[in-house]
């Protein structure tokens, strides 16, 4: 069941919002010159650098979720209500149902209180929104004959810092780097038969509102992002290579100069 998703959770959607954004920003920037590529200039523009980090985190989270195993069912980009953005993920597994929202705050300091979510100086309704979305998922599962509590989880993507002064009553707030560990540490509350019933209900498209999604271009976007990531890695290796060459040349010149001075000293000490 791992990696399966509802047909309402169409690809090319919220769970890869940062991938779409960084590719869009990159498409507006001029291509690097041959000289720039030779010297390993980073192909990601400064304006897109934060989105690139967020996109890399999105892809890592997607890969991690796909590797959870057969005990889990993963639904991506789930529409819960006409007036709400799609949930990035709904996870169904032995710990129960988890409604996951990715909060992109790359490079920002995030402060969390019981009912407060501050990103830098911005007060955001993320906790209330995540709880509302989780309630919508729970209502739809109950209507499908599979009542179950749903845990709202806000995954904060690559913040400069995440300080949780007081945990929210219902929602969980997790750093993107700690998300895999947080999932692994959750208690296994449900028997396999109960997980199977919940997974079947979650995968039934009739249990979700039929809200039109975006074009199914996720595979193309991910291939394009992977190409960009390879370019970034090549540029990084070239910069390192030039650093090594520079160090080698510096030491080489030092050795040459040392050799010349040594020869001159020998000539002074033992003139012909």
Helix content: 40-55%
Average pLDDT across residues?
Answer: 83
Structural class by secondary-structure content: alpha/beta
Q: Give, in spatial order, the strands making up the sheet with the most strands.
A: 1-2-3-7-9
Question: Can you count the beta strands?
Answer: 9
Which helices and strands, and how do they pair?
Blueprint: H1 17-27, H2 34-38, H3 49-66, E1 73-78, E2 87-93, E3 96-104, E4 109-112, E5 117-119, E6 122-123, H4 126-143, E7 150-157, E8 161-164, E9 172-175, H5 179-185, H6 192-203, H7 218-269
Parallel strand pairs: 3-7, 4-8, 7-9
Antiparallel strand pairs: 1-2, 2-3, 4-5, 5-6
Helix pairs in contact: 1-3, 1-7
Give an overview of the whole structure:
With 272 residues, this protein is an alpha/beta fold. Helix content is 45%, strand content 17%. The protein has seven helices and nine strands, in the order αααββββββαβββααα. It has helices at 17-27, 34-38, 49-66, 126-143, 179-185, 192-203, 218-269, and strands at residues 73-78, 87-93, 96-104, 109-112, 117-119, 122-123, 150-157, 161-164, 172-175. The strands form two sheets. The protein has a five-stranded mixed sheet with strand order 1-2-3-7-9. A hairpin with a 2-residue loop joins β2 (87-93) and β3. Mean pLDDT is 83; it is low at 1-13 and 260-272.
């Amino acid at each position: 069941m791992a990696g399966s998703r509802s047909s309402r959770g169409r690809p090319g959607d919220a769970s890869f919002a940062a991938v779409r954004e960084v590719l869009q920003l990159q498409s507006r920037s001029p291509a690097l010159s041959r000289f720039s590529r030779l010297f390993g200039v980073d192909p990601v523009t400064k304006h897109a650098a934060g989105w690139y980090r967020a996109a890399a985190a999105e892809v890592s989270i997607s890969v991690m979720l796909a590797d959870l195993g057969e005990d889990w069912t993963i639904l991506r980009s789930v529409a819960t209500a006409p007036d709400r953005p799609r949930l990035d993920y709904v996870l169904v597994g032995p710990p129960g149902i988890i409604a996951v929202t990715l909060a992109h705050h790359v490079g920002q300091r995030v402060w969390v209180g019981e009912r407060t979510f501050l990103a830098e100086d911005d007060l955001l309704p993320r906790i209330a929104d995540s709880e509302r979305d989780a309630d919508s998922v729970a209502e739809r599962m109950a209507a499908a004959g599979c009542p179950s509590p749903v845990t709202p989880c806000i995954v904060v993507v690559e913040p400069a810092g995440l300080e949780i002064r007081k945990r929210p009553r219902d929602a969980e707030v997790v750093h993107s780097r700690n998300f895999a560990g947080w999932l692994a540490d959750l208690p296994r509350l449900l028997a396999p038969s109960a997980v199977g019933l919940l997974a079947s209900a979650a995968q039934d498209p009739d249990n979700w509102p039929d809200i039109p999604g975006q074009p199914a271009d996720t595979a193309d976007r991910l291939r394009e992002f992977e190409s960009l990531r390879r370019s970034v890695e090549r540029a990084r290796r070239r910069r390192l290579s030039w650093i090594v060459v520079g160090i080698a040349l510096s030491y080489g010149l030092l050795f040459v100069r040392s050799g010349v001075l040594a020869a001159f000293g020998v000539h002074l000490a033992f003139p012909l």
